[in-house]
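Morning run. Coffee first, then this:
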Amino acid sequence: MRGSSRSAAWHGCLLGGVLLALSLGSAARRAGGEEAWRPAPAPLMTRWGADVRPDRVRPEYPRPLMVRKEWKSLNGPWEFAFDDRNEGRTAGWSTGKELPERILVPFTYEAALSGIGKGAEVHERVWYRRTFNVPRSWEGRRVRLNFNASDWETTVWVNGRELGSHRGGYDPFSFDVTDALKNEGAQEVVVAVYDPADPRKGAYQPKGKQLGSEGIWYTRTTGIWQSVWLEPVRAGAMEGLSIETTVDPETRRGKLTLIYRHQGPPAQGELVLSRGSRRRVVHRIAEREARGGRRAMQIVELEVPDCDLWSPETPALYDISLRLKQGGKTLDEVRSYCAFRQYTIKNGRLTLNGKPYFLRGVLDQGYWPDGILTPPTDAAIRYDVQMTKRLGFNMARKHVKVEDPRWYYWCDRLGLAVWQDMPSSHNLASREAKENFTAEWRAAMKATRSYPSVLHWIPFNENWGDPGAFQDEIVTLTRGLDPSRPITDASGWTQRSLTDVIDAHDYSNNLIAQGVQNPVKPKVVGEYGGIALPVRGHTWTTGWGYQLARDPEGLLRRIRFQTSQLFEAPNVSGFVYTQLTDVEQELNGLLTYDRLPKADPERIRAIFEGRSRADFHSGFLKDWVVLGPIPAGTDLRSPQDSPESRKTFDQVLARPYLGGEALLDPKQGTTVQAAGMPFTWKSVTAEGNALDFHRVFGKESQNSVVYAVATIERPREERDLTLLFGSDDAARVWLNGREVWSVNRVRGVSVDEDSVPGLTLKAGVNRLVVKVAQGVGGWGLTARFEKPDGRILQPAVE
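And here it is:
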């Protein structure tokens, strides 16, 4: 493989450079003294999984947009139980009941890092229990119990008192536990979670890809999957903090708006906005008596001149310090941050800070082989964001998942734009399901809208859940809640008139066709690529991709061929490549599931930044003489690749339907016998970059064979050429009588899918003979030659 020594070098640098370690203590113990936790066996683990310790699990502050000084993590070992018979309530599990299993929160029982790792099992009801102590320094203040996310219906008890329930799998929630606390000693918290699994049996909650590991679906997540923690607050402290900014990119005059609620009489305070070490703006707060009762909403507005603008290239952030006082005493103090940027639509294009901005995006599904939906460490989250930028992207489409808050924090700080999907519901048939989706979408927007990196809303993916006119209701709701961001109503092919952006999913090789003339709305290609390259030792299981590469060079060539077209397609505003990492059986990541690059990141970066482009217009062999369709004598009935189809194609490829097939030199109009039947050679010219045999023969055929011969004339010998070839389905290829390639697989025609190096075209006449076997479905081939310097060889005499 060309470049193999370089490939080894950058893999070595990567492994040496990204191993980060936390200073961690000893493992937690069960009551009897035995070790309570160790990772469960898993098909694959990340290098960050080794950094997880039960006494220091996800120790970073879990709420980056509203930081208080004092807090206490409840991540770590909890007691745990499955409740498949739904007996927990009646059996008294809500207090004083030791549960039989141990789990490491915030990893769900499906994840290896939970210590249980039963991802193939379905348990819709689970229980958690642990004890905690309240620090003495918190005396006299209220204590809140915070959950960053738990999937799906979560009920909480403290010391046997039921505090309430929360429905929703992706948004934070909290309870004031003060009145349930004992005066001293250990406090008990018990959590029960119900997460119905199967949409076909009535489950309607948004699940995204959580339908079990097969096809395009992945392992489920049940229960607590983000951080759990305590914090002390004074009575009347702020509840929630929403941050909104606007800016005129011409004058750079901005406006900051903070919205929060708190109990009690009006407060006074101070808002400090700073950039780096410079104290920029100080604003005195004097709240007014507001309507709305004891939890009145307060709005603080601040004009900000000469703003530094945020973009992926210059992620300028401002620090916020907000302090409230009552009667001269500090009521609350929080730290946050904001940014000033304008993302909108003008003249049919997406713009950032007043100028057209081309979004180079990647589909990021946020799954981990050892944590499933839960990243193992903060260092792992940061690595994903850094690697996304290193690979040449300025945007990530967070696909049908609402992410851990720390991911958005790193996108804000490092500079990565976000298109935010809503996790899909796969059952929107009832009004109850629609009402729940609406509530959870509202909550997802509230949880993410204050992050500067979140530019764009995508409430639906393709036609998942079959929303119909409900799609319009959600767009109208979204626009009312947040008129500042563009909306793609459904990424894919089920868009309706209210969408702000036209979004196509196209896994073909003819992406230049996605260009538009005089667009009224911005056009993006919201998914493309999906090129699989399995890496031995770094796969979760056997799997698939929309297309397949054999090696890193083939992967780069295929990505370059597709992506170059999107840079040249007229009036396209952006793209999203599928995808950042492998996920379980999907092997079409730029990184393996355990986060190793599949090719040199700098070469990938050059492609996605448009600096390394392919000649996707020329060099294809156009003129062929073909014979067929010859009955193959087979009975394949499925377009799926399988051991049965490969065994059948082995027989077809080995059978000579014509004598001397390697040395065929046919003439137009010549009739020959094949499979006991007469067939006539026919001269044809390929349309576009591929030869479509159904079109050539004017009919659909199944279980057939075709021969195709191309004549290539060269004025001089050409050495060290690479044949770039694709076929639907299996094929054998001969050049000047010598077999140079054979492929046995059910697949579609993909340009440059196979690379056959080390070939020579002699001076004068050369003949390329191709035999293509087909079962059912499509049928065709594409071929061209690449020179040693990477340029495409033109078939005409040079």
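The longest strand covers residues 253-263. Good start to the day.
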